[in-house]
Design a protein that fits this description.
This protein is mostly helical and about 350 residues long. Helices cover about 45% and strands about 5% of the residues. Helix 6 runs parallel beside helix 8 (about 140-150) and helix 8 runs parallel beside helix 10 (about 170-180).
Length: about 350
């Protein structure tokens, strides 16, 4: 079964490797933590989160008591991303088979995955049904909407909607689909354009045509809050954001040209925090984290709760539930006070 970036670091297969290392009290403590979610976790989410907590105990048995549960909530293994580009198709082995012959839940797991790379692939697949296409037509990420405009089975109504998109690449591709005759393979390949400027791209693993467009994208997305510069928001690891944030959503993004303009060295990269909830920006999650820290609450617990809840409900609803569960109000003020 395909594992997604939001859950692939939660190693259920390692939870039974060395059970003798785990104190008997741990099972009850984990169960109590899992029971504390409101609304309750479904069976799949409960298994993933519980396995993550157990794996942390097994990998660090010396910390298995009495403070273990406190830091187990951020249990994650290092990211498996070997490719520096977060939209690489290589991150999703077997996606075509899942989309073509997978059951309803497997297909929806791609179309509603918190990682925009998965949604981008789902949006391109001709077998995607109409209600999922309609959801992806309003996706926060332009990469997803651009792929949807390239979908060979996109309806005329859908293409007309995308042709009115404020992003030039999405609108131009949708408009070409409306005016060009035929759906040849060469024509569809010609629609694989830069997500920033709509010019042809040389490598289909990338979504921009050049380093210049990549830098422009970073300069636009960081101030808008879609991305957050990891160093700026967690200077010298002052607030543990880079430690608590899901590792598959810390991306290496082109930040500056190579020093001295040495040919072939490529750009310098900077770490960016990216939203792990599909309809929230990184900036919105950072606001929640600031409120949690200012209120003296556990940031790691808040992030993990949001990560789980955000897979089952709209992000705005998930954030409000996390606030309610932790007793945090706006600007970090605990609810029920007059401050």
């Amino acid at each position: 079964m395909h594992t997604t970036p939001s859950t692939r670091h939660l190693r259920a297969d390692q939870a039974d490797e060395e059970p003798d290392l785990v104190p008997s009290v741990t099972g009850a403590a984990i169960e109590a933590y899992l029971d504390s979610f409101d609304p309750p976790l479904d069976e799949d989410s409960r298994r993933h989160v519980g396995s993550a907590m157990m794996y942390r105990l097994l990998s660090q048995p010396e910390a298995a008591a009495p403070m273990a549960i406190q830091f187990l909530m951020m249990a994650r293994k290092p990211s498996r991303m070997a490719d520096p580009h977060p939209f690489s198709v290589s991150l999703w082995p077997g996606w075509e088979q899942v989309m073509a012959v997978g059951d309803v839940n497997e297909v929806e797991s791609f179309a509603r995955n918190p990682h925009p790379g998965a949604r981008r692939l789902a949006a391109l697949h001709p077998g995607l049904w109409d209600d999922l296409k309609d959801e992806l037509a309003t996706d926060l990420w332009r990469e997803v909407r651009l792929s949807l405009a390239r979908n060979p089975t996109a309806s005329r109504d859908l293409l007309e909607k995308l042709a009115g998109d404020t992003v030039v690449s999405v609108a131009s591709v949708a408009q070409r689909r409306l005016t060009e005759n035929g759906l040849t393979e060469d024509f569809l390949d010609s629609l694989d354009v830069c997500v920033e400027c709509a010019e042809p791209i040389k490598n289909s693993q990338f979504t921009t045509c050049s380093v210049l467009c990549s830098l422009g994208q970073a300069n636009r997305r960081s101030p808008s809050g879609v991305w957050a510069d990891a160093v700026e928001v967690d200077f010298r690891h002052s607030n543990n954001l880079r430690k608590d944030w899901p590792p598959d959503f810390i991306w290496q993004i082109a930040g500056t040209y190579a020093a001295g303009g040495i040919p072939g060295t490529g750009p310098r990269y900077r770490s960016k925090l990216v939203s792990f909830v599909r309809d929230l920006t990184a900036g919105q999650i950072l606001d929640l984290c600031a409120e949690v820290r200012e209120a003296g609450k556990d940031q790691a617990a808040a992030i993990l709760r949001l990560e789980v809840l955000g897979q089952r409900m709209p992000g705005a609803t998930a954030i409000e539930l996390v606030r309610d569960q932790l007793g945090v109000g706006l600007n970090g003020t605990p609810k029920g006070t007059d401050d």
